[in-house]
Amino acid sequence: MKKMLNGLAVLTLTMAFALPAAANDFEPQIKEFYNSTVKAWLTDPAVIEAIKAQNGETSGFDAAKIDTLDKQWRAEAKAGSGPLVDKVSANPLSAWLKAKKEEAGGKIAEAFVMDAKGLNVGLSDLTSDYMQGDEGKHQKTYGSGGDALFIDEVEFDESSGAFQSQMSATISDGGKPIGAITIGVNVEKL
Q1: CA separation, residue 67 to residues 70, 81, 83, 127, 164 (Å)
Q2: What is the mean pLDDT for each group of 10 consecutive residues in the chain (190 residues)?
Q3: How many other CB atoms sit within 10 Å of the CB of residue 134?
Q4: CA–CA separation, 158 vs 108, rounded Å?
Q5: Which has the closest alpha carbon to 141: 98, 100, 180?
Q6: Which residues are bridge partners to 123 per DSSP?
Q7: Is the distance from CB of 85 to CB of 77 less than 8 angstroms?
Q8: How far is CA 25 from CA 19, 110, 175, 187, in A?
């Protein structure tokens, strides 16, 4: 019954807002938000140093190690806490991202930074998985080079209760990609 009510709520919101289904309809506003707000974050020392430190720790991780960590993260995320989730969500970069989300006045539904492997370095809100490296948000940014910007489709996000599009960008240090950032943009607030 709850899923049915959630489905009806999504349908009602879609009809009420008459929101388009693709991010391209919001792309100009999302790019403006990126240029006016998010782009400066990509060179902030808090972001760069956190990614470099984690890259130093994770550079030798193989697929089996990453899979083990991802399974641990998923279990801890479901429980709401655990050593790995707590380590990331309580670190200084996560506090910085939470402050940036708050400053954005509702435009940001979530924000997280990934290392070179696609593993979470910091986050404003708990993600369902630890490994983002197999997803477009990492492959189409870090995997594409220094100035890559990827804007995904608009989707209803049940956890935030809002229509959002994920905007992702490469983070570089000295012109060399070191990680990526993803911002869940609440398109209703643009």
Answers
A1: 5, 19, 16, 16, 28
A2: 41 42 76 95 96 97 97 95 96 98 94 97 94 92 88 83 90 94 93
A3: 11
A4: 15
A5: 180
A6: 112
A7: yes
A8: 9, 20, 31, 10
Query: For position 13, what pLDDT does the model report?
Result: 43
* DSSP letter string, 91-127: SHHHHHHHHHHHHTTTSEEEEEEE-TTSBEEEESS--
- Neighbour tally for 39: CB within 10 Å: 13
At 122, list the tokens. Answer: 């910091």
Instruction: Quote the tokens at residue 147.
Output: 């100035």
Q: 154 forms bridges with which residues in the sheet?
A: 165
Q: Which two tokens stand for residue 162?
A: 């809002």
Prediction pTM value: 0.85
Q: 10 Å Cβ neighbour count for 75?
A: 12
Q: Which two tokens stand for residue 173?
A: 């240090």
